Automatic annotation (TrEMBL), chain A:
Record's subunit section: The basic unit is a heterodimer which dimerizes to form tetramers. The heterotetramers trimerize; 6 large subunits form a core ring with 6 small subunits projecting outwards.
Cofactor: adenosylcob(III)alamin
Functional summary from the UniProt entry: Catalyzes the deamination of various vicinal amino-alcohols to oxo compounds. Allows this organism to utilize ethanolamine as the sole source of nitrogen and carbon in the presence of external vitamin B12.
Subcellular location: Bacterial microcompartment
GO biological process: amino acid metabolic process; ethanolamine catabolic process
Enzyme Commission numbers on file: 4.3.1.7
Protein name: Ethanolamine ammonia-lyase small subunit
Reaction equations catalysed: ethanolamine = acetaldehyde + NH4(+)
GO cellular component labels: ethanolamine ammonia-lyase complex; ethanolamine degradation polyhedral organelle
Family from the record: Belongs to the EutC family.
Automatic annotation (TrEMBL), chain B:
Protein name: Ethanolamine ammonia-lyase large subunit
Binding-site list for substrate: R160, L161, Q162, N193, E288, D363
Description of how the protein assembles with itself and partners: The basic unit is a heterodimer which dimerizes to form tetramers. The heterotetramers trimerize; 6 large subunits form a core ring with 6 small subunits projecting outwards.
Cofactor: adenosylcob(III)alamin
Length: 262, 464
């Protein structure tokens, strides 16, 4: 704005360095100053577009193939975004045609089934899914048998249960776009489920959230995930019975230290 | 019992009262997700006709969730006050709406009636109400509670200051807390949603918030919103617990999914009373609720989401809470799809809570995957302010950077006070004036005079 005269500034603006919260904004009467109204509106626009933007599946598939992953595609039973938002139950089930295709085309002898779901932020998936899988592969033994990476659209977390069941996998790993906040339109969530099959409860999964450069970077998330995967296979479970103690792992000798977040 | 009506030559039949209630509800995505919503607009109106003719008494004999299988139903029936109910016991639901809107339903009459009403009666009448009815009936109700200040007086509005931080960083929490205080917010509670469930971290947060309150002698209370069992342990360990928080829902099974029972809440209530930390009153509980929680726990038993929500209030009122907060738009579009549904639900929750005698506030909020924006929040804010809501939320810039949703800001509270002439809790208002944060008229004073800001050396030490 050319003149800030009607705006009462807040002299405590230096506190902003202590938190990402929108504090010390100043005020125009009782209202928000124009510059903050525009900043807030822009952040909301980014979050809205993240939710409604369709995932560029071709681009993601190309990026994954460049890393030598096998790739398959699938859709949930939610046929469009509106249905997806209203009917979470449909987002948890594979489209029957796609389920049949996967069932026919795939051998059933993998350890780990990898699924990438668009979820509520395709932006998160587009930005972080491929780097995340590259970082994960570097953390796991080379003999690990992976399923093809299934890129699933209109997908909820539990869709990986059905995919994992089809593949007969010991573990399923779902990488999915999280509900965007104003300051984080591109957070990736990762869900790990032992013996995936339809009907698993959320309490039977482990979750790593806020994967993005400003939150938990891919390398640190991959270290955590690999630790959870090893422990899950060793103990035969995921969920409330498996606590994330990967931080303790770095204290043990003979293991590489993970990069620290931030 | 089967319910039926004939309208314009068409017969509409409903299996039981539960189906009448669900189909009489305004269209709501959660009821369709549960496959209990009306199939057509005419069926919805037919259900409302049937409901209008149903005697209020019917709700005392036809339980929507069986008495034998649900402890919330038992609590509702066993604690019903027949004497308080007497003035309206002869009415149908439709007549009850007329009575509530009439001059006979004074503030005193409604206060006396509250123990005689069940959540199902209240939910039923709200389904026959337009939004303006929900505003005008709620406006007549007055529920005043006290701990270190007085909340809910007519013509007043309190604010919960929510200083959340994505990593529970103490300096970050302190910065948001002070920002809110400097905007005159925080008289309902300084209430933090922690990320952590580590006892050490929770203890540190409680001590830090208590230090702010003690150091500046603020007539308010703090709360770290964690599971009731954690709060009990923290209190036993000597942490400065003002209020006990818990999320609750309207069925036994949904509460079990939250890890709570009425017995556990009673134990927590007794423990908090024994701490005796209030100065002007003994309301020590803080509850949060929200439509859709029973369905999301697969524990709604075919009962519509609004009725399930009001049943949670019947549980809450046993413990005489200082605050109960309906977090209306947090749950997502599969339960409340858009601004229209969120606004309607917020007005219903407030009116029904008030009719049951609860000090209800609202987290006027939405997530980014709902079809809503800040304009919808402004609409609900003005409506609830007009309806006499006890408190709203105050979050820096309306953006919660930990829970990733949008609510109302410190500025929004200023706007509402200014536009509707609403005052802060009297003890808190006096404190703001002592600190020269506000002037004699309750308006924000220039920062230069501000005694809280002047104590920068004290502020810098907070959270370290």
């Amino acid at each position: 704005m050319s003149s800030n005269a009607p705006v009462t500034p807040n002299p405590w603006a230096e506190w902003r360095s202590a938190t990402p919260a929108r504090l010390a904004l100043g005020r125009a009467g009782a209202g928000m100053p124009t510059d903050e109204t525009l900043r807030f509106g822009w952040a909301h626009a980014m979050a809205r577009d993240a939710i409604h933007a369709a995932l560029d599946v071709d681009a993601l598939e190309a990026a994954l193939r460049a890393q030598h992953w096998d790739v398959a595609r699938a859709r949930s039973r939610a046929e469009d975004r509106t249905t997806y938002l209203r009917r979470p139950d449909l987002g948890r089930q594979l489209d029957p045609v796609d389920a049949q295709r996967l069932r026919v085309g795939v051998s059933r002898d993998c350890d780990v089934c990898l699924v990438i779901g668009d979820g509520l932020s395709s932006l998160a998936v587009a930005r972080h899914a491929a780097p995340m899988l590259a970082a994960l592969r570097a953390q796991l033994p080379p003999e690990t048998r992976f399923s093809p990476v299934v890129i699933a659209t209109q997908a909820r977390v539990a869709l990986a249960d059905e995919v994992g069941e089809l593949f007969g996998a010991a573990l399923s790993v779902m990488l999915i776009g999280e509900r965007p906040g104003l300051s984080s339109p591109d957070s990736l969530g990762i869900y790990l489920t032992h013996s995936p099959k339809r009907g698993r409860h959320d309490a039977e999964r482990n979750c790593i959230s806020n994967v993005r450069p400003e939150g938990l970077p891919c390398e640190a998330a991959a270290f955590k995930l690999a630790w959870l995967m090893r422990e899950s296979l060793r103990r035969g479970l995921t969920g409330v019975g498996l606590k994330d103690e990967s931080d303790l792992a770095v204290l043990e000798p003979g293991r590489p230290a993970p990069p620290l977040p931030g | 019992m089967r319910y039926r009506t004939t309208i314009a030559g068409q017969v509409f039949a409903f299996d039981d009262l539960k189906h009448v209630m669900a189909m009489a509800s305004p269209a709501r995505s959660g009821d369709y997700l549960a496959e209990i919503g009306a199939a057509t607009a005419q069926q919805r109106m037919a259900a409302r006709h049937v409901l209008a003719e149903t005697p209020l008494k019917q709700f005392l004999t036809e339980a929507l969730i069986p008495y034998e299988s649900d402890n919330i139903t038992r609590l509702i029936i066993d604690s019903h006050d027949a004497q308080a109910f007497a003035p309206v016991s002869h009415l149908t639901v439709g007549d009850f709406r007329n009575w509530l809107l009439s001059e006979q339903a004074t503030t005193e009459a409604l206060t006396a009636l509250a123990p005689g009403l069940t959540p199902e009666m209240v939910a039923a009448v709200s389904k026959l109400m337009r939004n303006q009815d929900l505003v005008s009936v709620a406006k007549k109700c007055s529920v005043v509670t006290r701990f270190r200040d007085t909340i809910g007086l007519p013509g007043h509005l309190a604010v919960r200051l929510q200083p959340n931080h994505p990593t529970d960083d103490l300096r970050g929490v302190a910065a948001s807390t002070l920002d809110g205080l400097l905007y005159g917010a925080g008289d309902a509670v300084i209430g933090l949603n922690p990320v952590s469930d580590s006892m050490q971290v929770l203890g540190r947060l409680l001590h830090m918030l208590d230090e702010v309150i003690q150091r500046f002698e603020i007539p308010t209370q703090s709360c770290v919103l964690t599971h009731v069992t954690n709060t009990l342990k923290l209190a036993e360990a000597g942490a400065p617990v003002d209020l006990v928080f818990q999320s609750i829902a309207g069925t036994e099974k949904a509460n079990l999914s939250f890890g709570v029972t009425p017995e556990l809440l009673a134990e927590a209530h007794a423990a908090a009373l024994a701490l005796n930390r209030g100065t002007v009153g003994n309301n020590v509980m803080y509850f949060e609720t929200g439509q859709g929680s029973a369905l999301s726990a697969n524990a709604n038993f075919g009962v519509d989401q609004q009725t399930c929500e009001v049943r949670a209030y019947a549980l809450a009122r046993r413990y005489e809470p200082l605050l109960i907060n309906t977090v209306v738009g947090f749950i997502g579009p599969e339960y409340l799809y858009d601004g229209k549904q969120i606004i309607r639900a917020g007005l219903e929750d407030h009116c029904c809570g008030k009719l049951l005698g609860l000090p209800i506030g609202c987290d006027i909020c939405y997530t980014n995957h709902a079809e809503a924006d800040q304009d919808d929040m402004d609409n609900l804010l003005v409506l609830l302010g007009t309806a006499g809501i006890n408190f709203i939320m105050g979050i820096p810039g309306a953006d919660d950077v930990m829970l990733n949703y949008q609510s109302t800001s410190f500025h929004d509270a200023l706007f509402l006070r200014q536009t509707l002439g609403l005052k802060r809790a009297p003890e808190f208002e006096a404190w703001l004036q002592r600190m020269q944060i506000t002037d004699a008229a309750g308006q924000l004073a220039p920062p230069s005079a501000n005694r809280l800001l002047a104590d920068m050396s004290g502020l810098a030490a907070l959270g370290q």
